[in-house]
Amino acid sequence: MAAKLRLEGKVAVITGGASGIGEAAARLFTAQGASVVITDIQDTLGQSVSASISPPGCCTYIHCDVRDEAQVAAALALAVDTYGRIDVMFSNAGIVGTMATILELELADLEAVLAVHVRGTAAAIKHAGRAMVAAGTRGSIICIASVAAVQGGYSPAAYAAAKHAILGLMKVAAGELGEKGVRVNCVSPFGMATPLWCRAVGLSPEDAEKVASEAAVLKGAVLRTGDVAAAALFLASDESAFISGHNLVVDGATTMVSTSLDSALQNHFARSREE
User: Fold this and answer.
1) Phi, psi at residue 115, to the nearest 5°?
2) Residue 89 · residue 121 · CB < 8 Å
3) Which Pfam families does the entry link to (predicted)?
4) 120: closest CA among 186, 66, 165?
5) Average pLDDT, the chain
6) Mind listing the pLDDT tens digit for each residue in 28-62?
7) Which of 92, 103, 173, 214 is the most buried (most CB within 10 A)?
8) Among the options 61, 83, 154, 159, which is catalytic?
9) What residues have CB less than 8 Å from 101, skipping those under 6 apart?
10) Is 240 helix (H, G, I), strand (E, B) or coil?
11) Residues whose CB is less than 8 angstroms from the CB of residue 227 and which lie 6 or more positions away in sequence, other chains included
C-alpha cells in the first residue's frame, strides 16, 4: 500500500513562488498532494513554473505584489474560488533591499524593505486567517523569517529589522488565531544561493554556496532551497499539528555559536581581489 501523501487534499498559497524557496515549496507541496496557488511579480517565470508542475491543474499562478493588500486578498480569493478553501498559507515573498549600514541608511529604503516583508506578511496572515476561520479550517500559516532575526551579523540593518518584525507578527498571530484552531509559525533559514541573494551580493550560485559553506558551522552539507521547503512542508502538514508560535531555524547550528556570514563575504571578496 502506498504511503499517504503528507499534504493530500490540502490547498496551499505560496507568495514569491516563481523562484528560489517559493518555487521549491510549490514543487514539493504538489508532489505531496496539495493543490497550490503561487503568486509573484515575475509573471513569465511564475506562469512557466505553474505550467511545469504536474498533474495539470494542481498549480495556478496569479500576479500579486504583496505590498498591495488588495492583491493579496485577490490571490487568496482565487485559491478559494478555484480549489474551495485554504489550508496552508506560506508567506515567502521578500527582497534583500538596501545594503546600507545603519549610519548610511536612507529611511525611504528602509520603508521599501518593510513594505514587502512586513506589510506583505501582515496581509497574508490577515487574509489567510480570515479565510481559514470563515471555513472552520484548522489551517497552517508559515512565514519566512531569517537567521538575521535571531542573531546579528547576517544581514544589513533594513533586512534584519524586517525579519525581526515578521517574528513579532508570527507570535501575536499564533496567540490570536490559536483559539480558532489556526497555527502560525516561522522558518528562519541561513544564507543560501537563491537568485535573490546571489543578485544582492553579486555572486554566482557556485561562489554563493562557497561563502555560505565557509560561514556555516555544520560541514559536509550545503543548505539549499529544497531544505527550507522541507521545513515548511513539516509545518504545513498534520505532523506538526500541535506546533504553533515556533521559529524553526534551518541553519546547521550556526546561530548557536559566534559566526558571521558578513565576515565570510568580506573574506571571499578580499581573496578575489588578491587573485
Assistant:
1) -60, -40
2) no
3) adh_short_C2
4) 66
5) 92
6) 999 999 999 999 999 999 999 999 999 999 999 99
7) 92
8) 159
9) 156, 157
10) helix
11) 189, 250
Cβ-contact 20, 194 below 8 angstroms? yes
More confident residue, 54 or 275: 54
Please tell me whether residue 175 adopts helix, strand or coil conformation: helix
CA neighbor of 134 nearest in space, from 84, 198, 204, 207? 84
The type of residue at 110 is L
57: left (phi over 0), alpha (psi -120 to 50) or beta: left
Q: Report helix, strand or coil for 186.
A: strand
Whole-model pTM: value is 0.91
Q: How many Å apart are CA 96 and CA 91, to the nearest integer?
A: 16
Q: In degrees, to the nearest 5, what angle opens at C-alpha 136 toward C-alphas 132 and 141? A: 30
Q: What residue spans of the chain are helical by DSSP H?
A: 20-31, 43-52, 69-83, 107-114, 120-135, 157-178, 195-201, 205-215, 225-236, 261-274
Q: Whose CA is closest to 191, among 204, 206, 209? A: 209
Of 8, 9, 82, nearest in space to 39 by CA: 82
Decide if 159 is catalytic.
yes
